Amino acid sequence: MTAPDLAYVALVVDEPETSAAIFEKDFGLPRQDFSCGGSNVPMISVGESALAFFQPNDPFLGSDAKKGVHHIAIAASDPEGAAKDSGVAISGDASKGIDGKTQIALARDATCGIRVRYTEALGLPAASSDIVQRIDHLGVASADNKVAREVFIDKLGCVYESQQTDSEVETISENFTSDTYNYIFHTRPSELIGSMRVTFITVGDTEFEFIQDLTTNVEADEARHDAAGTTRGDRSAIARYVASRGAGLHHIAFKTPNVVESLAKIKTAGHRTIDTVGRPGSRAALIGFMHPTMIGGVLMHFVAREDL
Amino acid sequence: MSGYALTYLALIARDVDAVCRFLGGSLGLARRDLSLDGRAIPFFGIGAAALGIFEPDDLYLDEPRFPGVHHMALGTADPASTAAQHGLTVMEEGIGPEGKRFVSVDKAETCGIRTRFIEPLDLPVQASRVEKIDHLGIASTDIDENVRVFVDGLGCPLESTEVDIELRNVTESFISDKYGAVYHARPPEILGGLKGGFITIGDCDLEIMQDYDPANHPLDQLGEAVGNTKGDQSAVAKFIERRGPGLVHVAFTTNDINGVLQGLDAEGWRMIDTKGRPGGRGTQIGFVHPSNFSGGLLTHFVQHPET
To answer: Which of A29, A88, A289, B18 has its CA 20 to 30 A from that of B285?
Structure first.
């Protein structure tokens, strides 16, 4: 079994034309358009993979498509055969997809909430720019990373990359400073206020980032896009996402040479960003978020890190 | 002599009998009922001072009469001339317990602390679980003003000042099986704080407490488990919001904080603490639940570090 190649990542946005133009113009990545059913689908090459932009009501997506990262497609010369070989339940029959290529979908509830399709390769050229080198990872709100490993490694043939545990611990100290008596300070027992397990599994030239909230004794915080994130905030975001939309694809991250410079370029191009400086992310990286309104409802961030 | 000494502290109790059982029966203070305008008011000698326990409708006390600590009476041979000497406005002049002459002064001139001057009482004391009144807790909006009134004006000694701060420290750790460990700590965040000052009145002190930073919002929920600086800050802020600055609680000195707390607990008194916890001035403190007295009256014990 060879490790699967990622043909494309499907993004559902308000306006595919506008979003594709931003990637072409502001990110400097090449665009190519394909027909899919009756619609035109703009595609952007990123690294060895690509992004495909759809409207929420595109019949190709099936029912109930929400804005965000919709599905991924694995390249296979025989999509139907590859799907059957995986041993994972198939959803519906093979059909014609982007550029008339044969494609077939796996059952979402058998793949940790991630919509996975197999498609014939699209033959797009590899591409990168001074802002985006490739897709760094696809963030997944995960209910159980152990199951994710069983499905994506054992069945679909993806390769394990790394796993980490992120924790945020709060310690309260009290300090009594007198002008007459000795300085007294005491510290209460530390409390875990947020914890996540993050498992990276390689698909094509990128990874799935399965994020599982491990915090069971603390309620998730309200959403906020006004402040730099924390483990506590991130685990709350994942917990809320799993509760409201179920497990599945959550965000997309792009590898960039320099987070601060790339965020600044995006701002100069007239877009909103959540961060203006990098903050610590997984895999010893610096990360910085763009605002989800930039690409009509898709959460995106930059990642700068050394490859090991 | 410098300053004035506390003669008695007037407490208002919804359940006077319970307070008397607590002070007399459980703490072991000597009780003597003093006559006041034909009524008998229970008083308890403690150290060089006394505690007087009043019903909420007792007309000896000016309004408003909330359960809790009502006023403090400082001893002087000639109450009226003492008030005049310090330029304090007399609101009432009359005869108090045991026929002693008193004046009450305008609390607006004493930082909200209802203060009277009275001829000294001579009450018996006996060996008990507590040595004396340790301090009277005061909610203040401006410690400097308390110092001007009681230290500069009345000549009471400033014993010490302190600042209590509660900090939150957050550490994040990312531990990877491939990329190693990354730790980072965020800057400490002040959760709450109090400025404190102790002013001596005889054998006890006024413990002045001021919110360190009024922009730091008080907690909504109080009385949850063990207290802390943020909880104390919140209690002071809420007291001032409801009643204005002034007398909040009374604390007793003991040399066996855990013994007293556990003994009272075993005798069936509801305790907030059954074990001492850090208080100001390097002390250990432990609170009695106000529900024992049908609410409103807050008391705690204090053990000082061995010197």
So the answer is: B18
Nearest by CB: A168 against B170, B180, B229: B170
A residues 226-255 lying closer than 8 A (beta carbon) to B: 230-231
* Helices marked H in chain B: 16-20, 79-85, 143-146, 229-243, 257-266
Sign of the dihedral through C-alpha A203, A271, A67, A300: positive
**pLDDT digit string, tens, across residues A256-266:** 999 999 999 99
CB pairs under 8 A between A and B: 113
> What domains does chain B contain, in order, with CATH numbers?
6-303 (3.10.180.10)
**B185 Cβ under 8 Å from any chain A Cβ:** no
Q: Does residue B183 belong to the interface with chain A, where contact is any CB pair within 8 Å?
A: no
Where exactly are the structural domains of chain A?
A: 5-304
B84 backbone φψ class: left, alpha, beta (φ>0; ψ -120 to 50): alpha
Average pLDDT, consecutive stretches of 10 residues, N- to C-terminus, chain B (307 residues): 90 97 97 96 97 97 96 98 97 97 98 98 93 98 97 97 93 92 89 94 97 75 59 87 95 97 97 92 93 93 88
At residue B1, the pLDDT reads 47
Indicate the residue type of A269. A
Query: Which pLDDT value is given to residue B224?
Result: 45
Output phi, psi for A153, to 5 deg: -90, -55
Residue from A160, A161, A184, A282 to probe the interface with B (highest B Cβ count within 10 Å): A184
What distance in Å separates residue A191's CA from the closest CA in chain B?
Answer: 10
CA distance B280 to chain A (A): 7
Fold of the CATH domain A5-304: 2,3-Dihydroxybiphenyl 1,2-Dioxygenase; domain 1 (3.10.180)
A216-243 per-residue burial string, b: 16 or more CB within 10 A, e: under 16? eebebbeeeeeeebbbbbbbbbbbbbbe
Question: Which A residues in the span 178-217 are in contact with B, Cβ-Cβ below 8 Å?
Answer: 178-182, 184, 186, 188, 193
Q: Give the count of alpha carbons within 13 A of B284, CB side only.
A: 16
Q: Quote the Cα angle for B179-A266-A201, to 5°.
A: 30
Taking the CA atoms of A213, A219, A225 and A228 in sequence, report the sign of the dihedral they define.
Answer: negative
Q: A171 vs B182: CB contact, 8 Å cut-off? A: no
Task: Report the C-alpha gap between B38 and B53 in whole angstroms.
Answer: 16
> In angstroms, how far is CA A241 from the centroid of its own chain?
13
- Please tell me if residue A162 touches chain B, with a CB cutoff of 8 Å: yes
What pLDDT does residue A8 have? 98
Q: What is the ipTM of this complex?
A: 0.83
Highest averaged pLDDT of the listed ranges A218-232, A281-295, B217-231:
A281-295
CA–CA dist B198, B206 (Å, integer) = 5
pTM over 0.95: no
**What residue has token string 């204005």?**
B244
B217: helix, strand or coil: coil
